[in-house]
Amino acid sequence: MNKSTTAIVSLLVAAGLSGSEVHAAPWKVIDNANRSAQINPDAHGYMNAIMQYDYEPGQLYQVYGAPLRITDIQFEPGEYLTSEPVGGDAIRWILARTKSKINGIDQEHIYVKPTRPWLKTTLSINTNLRTYHIELTSYERTYMPAVSWNYEQYNMQQIRQETESSIEPKVNLSALNFQYRIKVQKGGKPSWMPVKVFDDGQKTFIQFPQAMLSNESPALFVLGRSGDIQLVNFRQKADYYIVDRLFDRAELIAGEKGRNIIRITKSR
User: Fold this and answer.
1) Contacts of 157 by beta carbon, 8 Å cutoff, 6+ apart
2) In the UniProt record, does the keyword Signal occur (predicted)?
């Protein structure tokens, strides 16, 4: 063992790893890491027949299918695939893509079906917002009709990191509210369609895709109770609009004669 390797091992041992852990065979390290990352269905995650996992990067989400049964993998409305999903067994597992709409926003779906039981493979999915790592297993009869994700904890982590790096230094993280609907009111879906809206009880934050930074920025108007348009003070920081107030309804308008209008509504 050369001096540099010895020094690295010494540092790892000093960090609390045992000698056996430091010198473990690569296959054992990989197997242990994969087992630790596996996330299985549990009763608390089910909403009717939909298993809703808590999203966290790097987890291996377990999805179980059966021949002649479809499993519907659902993504966050407004999230879209940037490439075709890639599976480890494209012959014995059948994949299909489609879209639905929720409040005028596209929602991506991937349908998965095995051709026989007792198969195992992996599936990797890249979107404009996240990467998903999935392990697929097939049984004779047991299958999951639908799988989706809950992003609340992930969003909280993202906001905390962005706050620390300073989107807004005084965000009240304990009061964050993500209950907003984003809907196409007029025109098609623009490249600047917001990906997230939330408030902290005092200010409202509208997050846009990175594409908005190099394109036309929409104007923001708050709608009064009678539908009248009100000007509102806001500022842009990176890919966020920060509004110094709360609102129930607002519209983002861009294009000649308001060609594109996006309605934001607070859920109650």
Assistant:
1) none
2) yes
- Phi then psi for 58, rounded to 5 degrees? 85, -5
The answer to whether 247 and 266 have CB atoms below 8 angstroms apart is yes
In CATH terms, are 26-166 and 180-266 the same topology? yes
List the single range of 62-76, 120-134, 193-207 with lowest mean pLDDT: 193-207
Render pLDDT for 156-190 as a digit per residue (tens, 0 to 9).
666 666 655 555 556 766 788 888 999 998 888 88
Tell me the CATH number for domain 26-166: 2.60.40
Q: Which of 37-41, 80-84, 254-258 has the lowest mean pLDDT?
A: 254-258
Q: For residues 152 and 112, what is the distance between their CA atoms, to the nearest angstrom?
A: 26
Residue from 63, 224, 209, 30 nearest 149 by CA: 63
Whole-angstrom distance, CA of residue 80 vs CA of residue 83: 9
Provide the CATH number for the domain formed by 180-266 in this structure: 2.60.40.2500
Question: For residues 112 and 65, is the Cβ–Cβ distance under 8 A?
Answer: yes
Domain boundaries, the chain: 26-166, 180-266
Q: How far apart are CA 152 and CA 75, in angstroms?
A: 14
Q: Is the dihedral of CA 123, 136, 156, 254 positive or negative?
A: positive
List of E strands, 12-126: 38-39, 46-47, 50-54, 60-65, 71-74, 86-87, 93-102, 105-114, 120-126
Query: How far apart are alpha carbons 11 and 14 in whole angstroms?
Result: 5
pTM above 0.85, yes or no: no
Torsion, Cα 122 123 124 125, to 10 degrees, reads -160
Query: Quick one: how far is CA 61 from the chain centroid?
Result: 14
CB atoms within 10 A of CB 260: 21
Which residues are within 8 A (CB) of 132 and not within 5 positions of it... i.e. 6 or more apart?
61, 123, 124, 125, 149
